[in-house]
Amino acid sequence: MSDTSVVRAMRILELLAHTEKPVPLKDLAAALDIPKSTAHGILRDLVQERFVDLKEPAAYTIGLKAFEVGSAHLRVAGFSGVVASELGRLCRALDLTAHYAVLDGTDAVYLYKQDPPGLGVQLASSVGARLPSHLTAVGKSCLAWLEVATVADHVVFAGAADSSRGPEADALACELARVRERGYSTDHGQVALGIECVAAPVFDAGGPRGALGVSYLHGASSQVDDVAGAVRESAARLTSMLGGTVR
Q1: Which of the four pLDDT bands, split at 50, 70 and 90, describes residue 42?
Q2: Which CATH superfamily is domain 78-241 in?
Q3: How many degrees, rounded to 5, is the angle at CA 233 between CA 227 and CA 234?
Q4: Which of 43, 94, 101, 173 is at a distance of 20 to 30 A from 231, taking alpha carbons?
Q5: CATH topology of domain 3-68
């Protein structure tokens, strides 16, 4: 395939990866501004290679091969088992949903998640989800230990032309300073109404690696300090196993 076809194929995969229901050909072509005939040809190749699954009638979902390739990144990173083990420990200790996320551009991307048995409510995070970094607890813990001058590169405020200036930027800077001071961050319904989140940063030998956190319904766990303490301890254990130092 030509470079243009490769780029279009990547855009198709990215769209399907963030869509829960099968996407009809015409909707996919319209969303990506690709001619239907061109999109159909690319999708045919992607289906043949199992990166995309064809659903009837003429609608598409992300395929198993795409998951396999994406999972390879986690294996190569060398910490999937360590993170999964620590998330399981934290989830059992607090009986809360636990997750691990990293910063990618202006988003916090959720790589791992562990739900306690019998959880009846789907919380905001899901594996592969992207949420605005400055709104999520995990995102704030990632942002707080960046060089101050680079924070604006990882934040987009709705309707703002410049994320480095203005009252929202000032408020975020103050909040990130508090995060660094106490060692954990919070989200009080900023992403999903009624959902509370607490997170703490994870470091490896090279510096900030990501953030580990928990989510729960508002009022389900009144002692935020107790939750934060457990999250910080878990993040510190993970940091130690990755050869890092808690900042």
Answers
A1: very high
A2: GAF domain (3.30.450.40)
A3: 90
A4: 173
A5: Arc Repressor Mutant, subunit A (1.10.10)
